[in-house]
Amino acid sequence: MKNDTQSHYPVKPMNKFIKKCSVCERETSDTYCYRHQLAYENLMNNFKLWNEREEINFNEYIDIILNSKQSGTWVKELARHIKILSNSI
């Protein structure tokens, strides 16, 4: 006889160290998921280059990223997230 209180599906163990990506809420062990972390690293490294050439501030750089047709989905999602955070300060 089968116990009706048992689940038919395996129970996923809860891991208190798993976080959610701040941008897309995918499971991660850091602030961002793998793809948004790469986008963040590229965004920051490229800002240094832009700032040396154009002497623009970070908010101007974020606007350029958001309006560029050459910017990819991941970096645009991250840039929107950063802009929202900076407007809430």
Key descriptive features of the protein:
89 residues; mainly alpha; two-stranded antiparallel sheet; 2 strands; 4% strand
Explain this structure.
The chain is mainly alpha-helical. The chain is built from three helices and two strands; from the N terminus they run E-E-H-H-H. Strands 1-2 form a two-stranded antiparallel sheet. It is elongated, with a radius of gyration of 20 Å. The model has no long low-confidence stretch (mean pLDDT 84).
Strand order of the largest sheet: 1-2
Would you tell me the structural class of the helices and strands?
A: mainly alpha
Largest sheet: 2 strands, antiparallel
What's the average pLDDT? 84
DSSP helical segment count: 3
Catalogue the unreliable spans: none
Shape: elongated
Rg over alpha carbons: 20 Å
Percent range of helical residues = 40-55%
Order of helices and strands: EEHHH
- The end-to-end span amounts to 60 Å
Which strand-content bin applies to the residues? under 5%
The number of E-state strands comes to: 2
